[in-house]
Amino acid sequence: MKKSISKTDLFNTLVANNDIYEIYNLLSLFNVYMKDNKFVKAYEDKVGVYIHEDLVVIEGSSTTEPIFIPSDVITLKAENVKCLSKDVKTTVGVALLNLILIEKGLNGKAAYINENFSIKTVENREIVPRLLLTDNPLDIEDMYSFDTAVRFLEGLNATLVQPTSLKALLPPPDIAKKKAKIIKEMVEKYGKDCFEDPIYTTELEEQLFAIDREWMKGDPTLDIGSDGKIMNTTRKKLFLMIGQDTAMPGTTPGTVFRSLTDGYGLDPEDVTAIFNGIIAGNYSKGKETQVGGTYAKLLIRVSSGMKVGVDDCGSTEGFITDINKDNAKGFYGRYYMNKAKEPFVFSKEVYDKHGDGYYNFRTKAKCFSPGSEFCKTCSGDIHAEYEFGSGHNLLQLAGDILNASMKAMHANVMSLQYFPLHDNIH
Ligand SMILES: [Zn+2]
What we know:
Layout: E1 4-5, H1 7-16, H2 23-29, E2 40-43, E3 46-51, E4 54-58, E5 73-76, E6 88-91, H3 92-105, H4 119-131, H5 140-154, H6 157-160, H7 166-169, H8 175-190, H9 198-216, H10 228-240, E7 243-245, E8 254-256, H11 268-278, H12 283-303, E9 307-308, E10 318-323, E11 335-337, E12 343-345, H13 348-354, E13 357-362, E14 373-374, H14 376-379, H15 381-385, H16 390-409
Parallel strand pairs: 1-4, 9-14
Antiparallel strand pairs: 2-3, 3-4, 5-6, 7-8, 10-13, 11-12, 11-13
The protein binds zinc ion.
Zinc ion binds near residues 367 and 378.
């Protein structure tokens, strides 16, 4: 009788022995067994792996199925993992991402994220706040190993990510008929000129998105291969409607109700703008990229002397921000005002107590400190500790300008948003 092991124990053993970080092992664990594999061996109708040179058979395995799929649920033991404080029930996919990006990449300096997440989540939620910490901050070595970890993940894509599916290649059934029906209903409701107003064109697009999302529901590529960009721009232009495009210089902006698969009949007037919007590396995008670069340079020039000085300038002007579980952490240490305009520090405790909602945050943009100085209350605790950090902060803004100018010329999506007007009039 061969020694056997459960999948959970196997995963934890591989973590403890550092075997989980070998690309060859990972490819073997997530693929169907193939002969001549050095790590996984067939044993009768099951497979086993070598642990300290002993072939140990995996319970519930077979030679025709991969040992693990990313959605398998396991209990990951904290004893072998720095970024975990206690054992956690998780999926193999989430565990692997955490082990590669946080345990190895950030050398265990951030906490385990027990949900489906993207590289951006790690950057926004874990890396950026930690760069400015005074206690155990991330350093250049950590950023270098994080970069290596992200590249390592690329090697796993072909094995772990389903790139496409039949649904992902097809439009939602009867979309042309459904679109015609929605347009007819909207014209009856809002009048025949309604689509000259981008609010109604956007509403139409949102109804079409809903149909497409319903069609893609449950598809293994959704939010992975078919991510936001594919759903909101590629599939939209291909199957739903080309929509509103910022015009190229010298052409008229407008709304194109057809999709690219609607067949012949594009208006020659629209062709330049449509193709400028859908090709990679188009002229306008290249041209617009200059704008962001120029702003970065200008902002460095004007911001190098800025510092955070006095405690509180007494500003009662704020910036209303929609706080939810995805962005709350990024605001810890900032100051928000109550109805009486008194500032309070926003923290995990405050968020846990008051929950989601609109918070009126103090902001450097409305700081009344004279000269090139900002106050600590408008800046927030983290920036207050880092007196000359405002310049770096502004570079983020230059990045945002770059992004906005590129987006205006590239595949972009319009959406309807609620803006609490009364709260923003002072
Ligand atoms: Zn201020």
